[in-house]
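Minutes, project huddle
Topic: does the predicted pose make sense with arginine bound?
PN asked that the exact inputs be recorded in the minutes so nobody has to dig through chat later. Recorded below.
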Amino acid sequence: MWGGRFAGGPSAIMREINASIPFDKRLWREDIEASKAHVAMLGRQGVLTASDAQAIAEGLDRVAAEYETNGVPEDWDLEDIHMTTESRLAELIGPVAGRLHTGRSRNDQVATDFKMWVDQAMWQAHDDLHRLQEALVKRAEEHADSIMPGFTHLQTAQPVTLGHHLMAYYEMFERDRSRFVSAAVRLGECPLGSAALAGTGYDLDREFTADLLGFAKGPTRNSLDAVSDRDFALDYLHAASTCAIHLSRLAEEFITWASQPFGFVQMPDTLSTGSSIMPQKKNPDAAELVRGHAGRIIGCATALMVTMKGLPLAYSKDMQDDKPPVFEAADLLTLCLAAMEGMVAGATFRTARMRQAAELGYATATDLADWLVTKADVPFREAHHITGALVRMAEERGCALDQLPLKDMQQVDPRIDASVFDALSVDASVAARKSFGGTAPDQVRARIAEAREALSMEDEE
Ligand code: ARG
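Predicted holo structure (tokens), as shared on screen:
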């Protein structure tokens, strides 16, 4: 493409280090679409004759049809998807193909293609998250009353409901979804027509191409920025990383809950594996890989941030390295979201075991101390101490707090009376936490109803 300036061809090493076709061939649809928009605009503006513009557009359709059936050929000499397409176009329609690149550079071309691809990836993540949220809402609804221990420091703290716990993840994924949406909105300016870095002297209609390609905010306003901006890719990777962190935390909970000492959940067979030597094993591999893949997604975000941080304006070839981390993160995120949806939908929650863990973990000790304060007028510090003694007594007997006989409790503190039992059960504790956003089943059901509305899920009942 630039033979005029060069006495000899590139070395084998140069060809190899320079080639982006092995990965950027994934942009072929966007590349064809953007080229067709460009050539339609050139024809409309009279920069190209109508018949040349038409010949090029038809040729591009033929190239696209070939890619569709045979895939994109990988010739390192042609470097990237842009030159691969243009060279095939020339083979098909002859020298008029050379007019396609009028008033354009690969720099604005690749920025445009990549923005289009990333936009699609953002909406894909949005839709996948939506499905995962629907799965969470369904399971939360089933378990709005199922009691489990709530933890801090992974130590039993206070009883909560499983529905409440699952809806916590609904909230995280809701924020993730909004991050992808706002990033997609911000991305909406079209770089095409910025040319190499300075704009061009041809009479282009950049509004027209921006509109044709679905960029809602029109053309970019500074050609130097347009060809060297990869913020949209960083935005995607940041949103993907935060989402991956949430997925990883949920995966970690499933892994912990599935272990025998916890026994809170059985992961679906379809998303577990066995052991070749230990017949009893059922390992939560899908959850572990979601947790593992989160690390790789964060690695992709780090890779592109570090690539970009030292680059002067405008384009530098380092920026070709923008694509592998974005493609890798997108593939991993798609997989992780699907796997998590399957785990949430297919998990068997062992609610009796969860309830027992809340009871034997003395999760209502705070409620007992609060009872002493409000019903028996005991100062909180003293109530804390008395409660500690009662927990120790229950622990020694291996029973729940509400299984201690009243007379034994009264031996520890005579101010205790029978009404204490109203405060000691895990159900009473949960029902009492009815502040907005609290774990009381009525609160949880109200939040679930709002979530259903927000997701506009059909009522299946
Ligand atoms: N393959 C290149 C990339 O992905 C296309 C842009 C090349 N531009 C250039 N000035 N060499 O970034």
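Observations noted during the meeting:
- The pocket of arginine is lined by residues 20, 24, 80, 106-107, 110, 315, 317, 319-320 (CB under 6 Å).
- The mean pLDDT is 95.
No decisions taken; revisit at the next huddle.
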